[in-house]
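Quick start: what a row looks like.
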Amino acid sequence: MTKFAVHALAICCFVAAFLLNHADAMHDKMECNECHKRVKLDYLLCLKCHDGKIDTSGLNPPYSLNGDIDLSAGSFNYAGHQTHQCLNCHDYHDNDNYRNLKEKISGRQVTVDGIGGPLYKDNIYISGMSAFCIACHDATQGHSHPVDVRINGSVHADYNNWARKISRLSIAEIPSGNGNDIINARVFCMTCHVAHGGPFKNLMRWDSKEGCLECHIKD
């Protein structure tokens, strides 16, 4: 066997191993030509599958429909993110970041870890999401809320009230990845904001103080 053939075999083995290790990744289950038959890879390509106007809940993998509050996929035109497209934040090829979020955003290397629910609605965010948001959003302004801090034990936080809520308007980042480990739950950007857009001002998850009072003690 020639030296070239040995190198070629090694490369093939490496690629095969990579694909097997990433067999559960979403886009790895698709044929290349499903996307590359298009001349341009842009958000219109993404919307072929990821659009709330299309019922894709029966597909494998499934993609959840947009809800009234949290838009899970597809096009959006809300204050804040209306000028952005899918590929501003997501890669079209699978990567090691949760939900294919870009590994480098605004010149910063960011690792985002999480676990997707069966229909990608009940997701567990583990780490990195706030760093991803802050790469573009200025978090030094006086009105910015602290992130990456535990709800339990934080000043002005009402952890007991938040913990006993069965259905919460807010969500939390759980470093252990165990959805029941809420004692270590942390506030992060998406505790209060939705990523893709919604009906409320400033991409908030709610339209009143109700969500704030899940964590905060009313004065």
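That is the whole record. Residues 3-21 form the longest helix (19 residues). Residues 12 and 18 are 10 Å apart (CA to CA).
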